[in-house]
Amino acid sequence: MAAQLKKNFEEYAAQGVEDHEEEVEDTKPEDKKFDLSIYDKLKSENGKTGPIIFFNLLCKVFDEEMQKVDLHFDGYMSQIISQKKLQSKDFSEGLSKFVQFMPEIVLDLPQIHAYCFKFVIRPLQKKGLLKMRFIKWSVDPKEKPAEVDPDDYVFDQTNSYYQLMALILKDFKNDPTVEVSWADTFTHYEKELNGPATSKEKFEKIEDPDDLWPAITDEIGEKDAKVIIPLLKGDMAAAKKAAA
Fold first, then answer.
1. How big is the CA angle at 123 (ends 22 and 126), to the nearest 5 degrees?
2. Which end of the chain has the least Cβ crowding within 10 Å, N or C?
């Protein structure tokens, strides 16, 4: 399934390149109706659900060829949305599975948190198709295997979660369309992102914290980091003091 979805995306990307080379006037690739029948086939013939399809798409598309994603993924997502192949619930549930899977992906793509934010979360939020309160950041205990083979290595470091959350908080605080205070940001973190409970749960699985926090500072800037990092560490008092 994942390979079929990636092939479909690559066909869309190739079409975009061809149209650009031919200089088709007044028509963008995303304005044309692209063949997304694979989504219908996966649902009707293979019994796959929307969230599973979206999860597999993200897992397969985010690879070493990120330039192709940068150029064409937004248009491809617009096709999926305009043709109603996936719905809001599919995005939130599929993204939940993806962020839970990031500890394994990060081994090959250290910047997966940034890709997830830039190409998935932010665009879907702008289109009003993603409510952050519906994202489940951790695997449901009921879905975890009762026993784990001791020979199987478990990828459970949580650095990518904190890096992604930092980007989400920075973006929320610095929304150019509306004035947002740090108090609003703290409320968003608590109520919409379930931040305090999730961050506390994931804290002990941080790998090399002495590297993580400076990396976050470099990525979001010292001005925002001095508030956001204490928040992610569970020190609300320090975050409020830094924001004052």
1. 120
2. C
Residue with tokens 């013939």: 45
Q: Three-class SS of residue 42?
A: helix
Mean pLDDT within 132-141: 90
Of all residues in the chain, the percent with pLDDT exceeding 90 is 82
The letter for the amino acid at 176 is P
Q: What are the CA-CA distances from residue 86 to residues 81, 190, 237 (Å)? A: 6, 28, 41
pTM exceeds cut of 0.85: yes
Q: Are 243 and 180 in contact (CB under 8 A)?
A: no
Q: Which of 122, 238, 113 is nearest to 186 (CA)?
A: 238
Of 131, 132, 18, 117, give the one whose Cα is nearest residue 69. 117
CA-closest candidate to residue 58, choices 5, 107, 134, 111: 5
CA angle 204, 205, 206 (to 5 degrees): 95
Instruction: Give the tens place of pLDDT for each residue, 16-62.
Output: 755 544 444 555 555 679 999 999 999 999 999 999 999 999 999 99
47 φ/ψ angles, rounded to the nearest 5 degrees? 70, 25
